[in-house]
Design goal:
Two copies of one chain form a homodimer. By secondary structure, the first copy, chain A, is an alpha/beta fold. Chain A is 36% helix and 26% strand. In chain A, strands 7, 9, 10, 11, 12, 13, 15, 16, 17, 18 and 19 form an eleven-stranded mixed sheet that branches. In chain A, strands 3-2-1-4-5-6 form a six-stranded parallel sheet, with helices on both faces. In chain A, strands 8-14 form a two-stranded parallel ribbon. The first copy, chain A, starts with a strand and ends with a strand. At the A-B interface, α2, α6, β13 and α12 of A face α2, α6, β13 and α12 of B. Chains A, B: Belongs to the homoserine dehydrogenase family.
Chain lengths: 404, 404
């Protein structure tokens, strides 16, 4: 029997306890031993819940108990999670976490510590909910040099953008619906401003390139400026708008990363990733294109990923599973020189297509959606040039990056 | 330095040597040691190829050399591959293979032998080419009871069906084009009759349910009976025809498996898997839907999967990676009782919709594609009942299973 403890009895924590109960028999078979939840840590009480018998309010009871071999941290946030996880590793316990803030901030250090202690620090559930992506990156795509990772990594924004498109509603209405359904928080900024996706692409990039990618360095733009008119343009172009979190390695081996809405067409592997689903596209120099798809959040899918890590930790109690993520910082190149095409919307009152051609060169006309607007797609242009040119246009309504 | 040997210098074997050369540095980092190809086995000569220096024609030179720690078997076919692999394991070498015939036939036995000898028998490349699916099934989806695996597992048939649809051509023309491009063999029967997909779903099912699924027990139907008119019906129904290889666990825990063309709509995760790409959809009882997508064949993608297994074998030289695939046979239930809806095409001369309603109950009318035909979709009906009813129809033109 292997004793574990669950820190945090919220959505994911209670999901972990539930999955271990529902699938206990097959998990036993796969782990080679029974997984027993010895403690649950939470500040609250849960009257009537069977976990009351094992509920504790003091983390040290868990962290100082040598019988606990694996600690599951599903509290979220950097502190006190970081202190608890560090102490757990120092005290000889492997750690499984779903906490993207913790992993993005302290992943390299905690992996080093786990390695030093011959333990494991596993975090499959921190990106893409239930989708297996951390382990495939770490153990399956090992023959490749990764040249691009692009993910739809935030279910809330993907749901909002999908509904804006399907139901012809504006951003605020779609957000309110998402909040009513529990898909968005009351304070939605972490999701809609792209911060959640930013931390996740930082984790994936650090693993793909084997060096520390600091999330603070990643250019991050959310979706709150995307209007129902932008969506109509996308439809007119047989395209969809998705919040992409990307990191791309140039031919000269420099890497840039950004989170921003982009228009894609049906030929992109992520085009069919709709609603709350997540998808992660990876391009390797020999494997070519691969894509992973599934529920990016939700109680049971996320708990499934956490428990799969518990099984792995149980199978490797005193053997470190090697993960290459050095604490050496990867200096991202500025997005200034990154090139995209852009859909640009300008007022007809102040602008003509001729003006725009004079400014951008050969532009692609776009079907009319709003009578008082001109819209067109630019040639490939760097972010810096685009910014400068936008300042020269009076009556600019908006712009969205285009990947086709 | 870890010495390996490559058995077979065809497309995949030469790809393996190429990937180890192109990405040698990063593979070194991930394996923790240099991977050195000490021998290549092939009956042919390759004048001018650098591997000539290490080419041998006698497998025993490799199998009896204690310096060789990992044997890569990429010859294909059951014999002599099976004898070579068995001897390699008996002589203390881990084995990596891309050989689906070998794995489907002898997987359980070779896994047992590897475990007994504290070695590894790895076969990521045997299903889905470069797509990571074996390792995710074995190591990532361990918290779940798998209730369905459905794959588009054969690139040749997917290419043919995609082109029939995109270019409005018939089966024979699409097959000839595929042969001209090297996507189909001169004798295409292993692909178009479904035998290749059948072996692959047998492997995935054995891993998912942990017991031996014999490919001979799987109901297998190919695509050669699919006509351009069937494709037109699919288009009229906003659907596509795909060769699905499925295994599904019922609520009473009985499993059935089948390979057959089916019509699906855009809401199915595999709808966008076109051309030579493969996709594998997995449904777990807690994770819900996940899908893996990528190149299902091709020199470098397949070699990428083989080399990733070599890296894993190198990291686990004297430690068996546990795989649950018992040699105990899983008795599949007969497909007789499996239910589908069917698109049925009958001649107008002999039949009326009224007749068909009398026979099937409530049917769904389908837009007219051919003037002298009636087409409709049946309610859910068992394979057995469908077979019996088809015999009662004079002037039946064809039928295709429908998954919507």
């Amino acid at each position: 029997m292997i004793n574990i403890a669950v820190l945090g009895y919220g959505t994911i924590g209670s999901g972990v306890v539930e999955v271990l109960r529902i699938n206990g028999d097959s998990i036993f078979k796969r782990a080679g031993d029974e997984i027993n939840v010895k403690y649950v840590l939470d500040l609250k009480e849960f009257p009537g819940d069977p976990i009351m018998d094992i509920l504790v309010h003091d983390a040290d009871i868990i962290l100082d108990d040598p019988e606990v071999k694996i600690v599951v941290e599903v509290m979220g946030g950097v502190e006190p999670a970081y202190s608890f996880v560090k102490k757990a590793l120092l005290n000889g316990k492997s750690v499984v976490t779903s906490n993207k803030e913790l992993v993005a901030k302290h992943g390299a250090e905690l992996l080093d510590l786990a390695k030093e202690k011959n333990l494991n620090f596993l975090f499959e559930a921190s990106v893409g909910g239930g989708i297996p992506i951390i382990r495939p990156l770490n153990q399956s795509l090992t023959a490749d040099e990764i040249v691009e990772i692009t993910g739809i990594l935030n279910g809330t924004t993907n749901y909002i953008l999908s509904k804006m498109s399907e139901e012809d509603i504006d951003f605020e209405t779609a957000l309110k619906n998402a909040q009513a359904l529990g898909y968005a928080e009351r304070d939605p900024s972490a999701d809609v401003d792209g911060h959640d996706a930013c931390r996740k692409i930082a984790i994936l990039s650090s693993l793909a390139y084997g060096m520390q990618v600091d999330f603070e360095d990643i250019y991050t733009e959310g979706i709150s400026h995307i209007t129902d008119i932008d969506i109509q343009y996308a439809k007119a172009l047989k395209a969809r708008i998705k919040l992409f979190a990307s990191s791309i390695r140039d031919e000269d081996e420099s890497v840039y990363a950004m989170v921003a809405p982009v228009m894609i067409r049906a030929d992109h592997p992520l085009y069919s990733v709709n609603d709350v689903f997540n998808g992660i596209y990876v391009k390797g120099n020999v494997i070519g294109d691969v894509m992973f798809y599934g529920s990016g959040a939700g109680k049971l899918p996320t708990a499934s990923a956490v428990v799969a890590d518990v099984v792995d930790a149980a199978k490797h109690l005193n053997k470190n599973i090697w993960t290459i993520w050095s604490s050496k910082k990867l200096e991202l190149i500025s997005t200034d020189r990154v090139k995209h095409r852009f859909l640009v919307r300008v007022s007809k009152e102040n602008n003509t297509l001729k003006d725009m051609e004079a400014l951008f060169g050969e532009i692609e006309k776009v079907p009319e959606v709003v009578t008082d607007e001109l819209a067109f797609i630019t040639p490939l242009i760097s972010e810096k040039d685009m910014k400068e040119k936008k300042e020269q246009i009076s009556g600019i309504v908006g712009s969205v990056r285009v990947r086709f």
